[in-house]
Amino acid sequence: MSEIKGDMSRTPSPDGGAKEAQVVPVVDIDDGFDPQFVKRTMRKVDWRLIPILIAMYTISLIDRTNLATARAANKVKMDREIGTGYGQRYTIITLTFFIPYIILEIPSQIGLRYFGVRNWLSAAVFLWGIIMICMGFAPNWNTLAGLRAVLGVFEAALFPGCAYLLSCWYPRRSMASRNVLFYTSSAVLGNFATILGYAFSLMNGTRGLSGWSWIFIWFGILTVIIAIIAYFALVDFPDRATFLSEEERHLVLTRIQRDRADSVHDPLTWTKIVKYSKDFKPWLFAWFFMSATVSSYALAYFLPVILADLGFTNVQSMVLNIPPNAWSVIPALVTGYIADKFRHMRAAVVIFSAICIIVGTAMYSQLGANQKVARYAGIFIAVQGGNCNVPLVLSWAQTSIRAQSKRAFMAAVVVCFGGLGGILASVAFNQNEAKKGYRSGVIFTMVINAVTVIGAAVLHFWMRNQNRRAERDSKVLEEDVNFRYQG
Prior knowledge:
Layout: H1 35-82, H2 89-96, H3 98-103, H4 105-115, H5 117-135, H6 141-155, H7 158-169, H8 175-191, H9 193-201, H10 211-233, H11 246-260, H12 270-277, H13 280-309, H14 314-320, H15 322-341, H16 346-364, H17 372-399, H18 404-428, H19 439-473
Helix pairs in contact: 1-7, 1-8, 1-9, 1-10, 1-13, 2-6, 2-18, 4-5, 4-18, 5-6, 5-10, 7-18, 8-15, 8-17, 9-10, 13-14, 13-16, 13-17, 13-18, 13-19, 15-17, 16-17, 16-19
């Protein structure tokens, strides 16, 4: 929302405090600031905040999905040594990660403020790096499944923490583009892990360990290194930012206050959690997010099998996994720009991406295409849809609310359902249906994204109606007279 009819909220002082509420007519969130100073300050924020978050989330994506890389690179040995090739064991191992990951999303947000961003997130990354190294020495599939569950405990802190942190630094008109940059960069870089994982697997037999073990060990070591870097590089919330001058900190806080009147921290408590749970919006956005992650996780875990079904070797499958994700950066940046530039088209870009998932899934499966080229093209379209909608839904959700505590709750609930999407992908894409092209999983993915298309359209018209009522009847939205929905 670039124009505000009147600022009825508190305006932050340079030290992060707040003055008494007063009517301050504001034309733009940058009104009164030198444009070059705004640009220079936000560029400084971008460089300090986003690269380290990209590095941390990249290794997060790698570590939660490198089970597929390890099995694709060294399947016969892995199945023989720890018994992953029997029945539903591989599905169980993929699934155990998501149970604690989902349960601990909301509690992790409480710890973020209490312990501080640097301590909380870098410690989480460090600890799951140790777990990754331990996975390389797992003597059986049960141990590997248990370690995957512990991995989910520590990874639960990162993604909702990153989403919440980004929303606290940027006004709504910059949120989609920053989320897209953060997520798609991580997704693309994460896919190069398949090649790196294959290189690690060539150490097969070194020190008596198989290639799949070395994949876990080396990625674990890399995770620990990134955690150490993060401890020194991470920045805290704007009101605690020491890398900014007092004037720069005042700029950041004032822009947030003018945009949505929630620059002042309010802690997330269990009472507020109960209150926010009664709002339908977090749950609807959570569904949108889940529908995108079902597709993304299915391709992350089962794409090597799908490519093998098309006649490609293991090495070819690892290489062919990269181009679809690299391509998805272009439409993701375009849709992110559209969402921020034309802020009442956020629903439109989410709907478009969900349709891409439906069409792409039909194409790469045996439902819609028999030709190898057409099915591989479908993978491009499906990956595009998923990689676009994850950051688009996350940013739309954060622009539809205000108050820092609710922002933390929204991030946790939405990302929590992303974990649920991982469970559903693990179950729906049943290993027993591999020879049938995962028919049940394919149909399920298409159906839940069709529901997203309908739900996003309904939410768009509801938001338009609420905005009209606010203008016509002075209805207060999100407990702020100046707040308007962007859909």
